[in-house]
């Protein structure tokens, strides 16, 4: 059974195990969902509710975000048009231009497709 489990995406350990719906690495304590890793391998980016995102989509921010250098940040409900999917820094996978803020990268987990 160990042969069928994927290695840890963080430390590449082969000693991963299942705990409910999650995969767990005993060496680095990283936890991840097998659905997330399958979507990443396919290059599919999904929004917070599971809709597949593509370049040029319009999305809505679902929670208020703090932005360095901005007194107000990005409020929940802000529409962002013409997004571009990228392999960004950390979990940031959307490159966009937010009205009133400027160009920035967002995480797909904080947006919903319109």
From TrEMBL:
N-terminal signal peptide: none
Matching Pfam families: YjdM, Zn_Ribbon_YjdM
InterPro entries named in the record: YjdM, YjdM_C, YjdM_N
Every Protein YjdM N-terminal domain range: 4-33
Domain Protein YjdM C-terminal positions: 45-114
Similarity comment: family membership: Belongs to the YjdM family.
NCBIfam families, sorted: phnA
Entry protein name: Zinc ribbon domain-containing protein YjdM
């Amino acid at each position: 059974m160990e042969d069928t489990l994927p290695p840890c995406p963080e430390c590449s350990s082969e000693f991963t195990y299942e705990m409910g719906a999650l995969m767990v690495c005993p060496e680095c304590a990283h936890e991840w969902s097998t659905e997330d890793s399958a979507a990443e391998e396919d290059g599919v980016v999904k929004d917070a509710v599971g809709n597949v995102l593509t370049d040029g989509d319009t999305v809505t921010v679902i929670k208020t975000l703090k932005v360095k250098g901005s007194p107000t940040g990005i409020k929940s409900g802000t529409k962002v048009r013409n997004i571009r999917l990228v392999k960004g820094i950390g979990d940031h996978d959307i490159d966009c231009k937010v009205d009133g803020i400027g160009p920035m990268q967002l995480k797909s987990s904080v947006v919903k497709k319109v």
